[in-house]
Design a protein that fits this description.
276 residues, alpha/beta, Rossmann fold, globular, binds adenosine-5'-triphosphate, binds magnesium ion
Length: 276
């Protein structure tokens, strides 16, 4: 199982859209996926149509009052599960800050999932801030997936998150975490700027940037208001195709090491030598 934090402290860059639709596309391919909504705004929760829940967030699990497994809910989609968020998570942030283990609360909370093997991937949808919930996500993650919007100043935001990731590594809370992938979002083929930004980010971050670029489409922005992933809302449109392509690329990057092929002990007799 891999825990992936979908994170960028910059707001509105496509974190939630990417977390939800990449998760749905992975689930469609048979991967067992859990989305953990870590944003008190609950955008990922409503994007899968599950906003009418009360006190179901990770709040008490983070504070040791329950286990993470009690918080997991099935969604309409096969293989896709959710731990929802609501505003009470903002309160958890304050409570956690008072504790000595404030950086590793989420890491400990999610540790059962590493042992029980229920999921292939856990995607953490982070809030747009450098607060306790986001740093906890970085400390709990194997890897960070950073969406970047194709617009001016894209790189400036990246510099900040790179620094925070370094701080988390240096704190000893998670010495392996790094930005494993960058996804360019809201690409507008009609503007020169979008292409220039993608080029610039690729120059700096090379193969960490996914080949798949997510286009700007009205459908992707409409889907959450219907509580649907893009695969349900417009399954054959460019947005769905892009997130399916991203899922393929993601799976290639996360493929388990190929098993060693043990040569057969004796060669199979060929048809000529075989007795009839
Ligand atoms: N590829 C896209 N094409 C069109 N609209 C998009 C696309 N991706 C995201 N959006 C829209 O842009 C807005 C911001 O996207 P999203 O909520 O995914 O970003 P975010 O980084 O999670 O934001 P926040 O920082 O507030 O959590 C939303 O209204 C969303 O529907
Ligand atoms: Mg969001």
């Amino acid at each position: 199982m891999k825990i992936i934090a979908v994170a960028n402290q910059k707001g509105g860059v496509g974190k939630t859209t990417t977390a939800v639709n990449l998760a749905a596309a992975l689930a469609e391919k048979g991967q067992r996926v859990l989305i953990v909504d870590l944003d008190p705004q609950g955008n990922a929760t409503s994007a899968v149509g599950m906003q009418d829940l009360e006190a179901e967030s990770l709040y008490d699990a983070l504070l040791g009052g329950s286990t993470v497994t009690e918080k997991i809910l099935p969604t309409r989609l096969t293989n896709l599960f959710l731990i929802p968020a609501d505003l009470d998570l903002a309160g958890a942030e304050i409570e956690i800050a008072r504790r000595d283990d404030h950086l590793t609360r989420l890491q400990s909370t999610l540790s059962i999932l590493r042992e029980d093997g229920t999921f292939d991937f856990v995607l953490l949808d982070c809030p747009p801030s450098l607060g306790i919930l986001m740093t906890n996500a970085l400390a709990a993650a194997d890897e960070i997936l950073t969406p970047i919007q194709c617009e001016y100043f894209a790189l400036e935001g990246l510099v900040k998150i790179v620094r925070v990731v370094e701080q988390v590594r240096n704190s000893g809370a998670n010495d392996k975490v790094e930005i494993g992938g960058i996804v360019m979002t809201m690409f507008d083929a009609r503007t020169k700027l979008s292409g220039q930004v993608v080029q610039e980010v690729r120059t700096h971050f090379a193969e960490r940037v996914y080949d798949t670029v997510i286009p700007r489409t009205v459908r992707l922005s409409e889907a959450p208001s219907f509580g649907q992933t893009i695969l349900e809302y417009d399954g054959s449109g460019t947005g769905a195709l892009a997130y399916r392509a991203l899922a393929n690329e993601f799976l290639k990057r996360h493929a388990p090491a190929a098993p060693t092929i043990v040569p057969a002990l004796s060669p199979t007799p060929s048809s000529e030598t075989r007795e009839t």
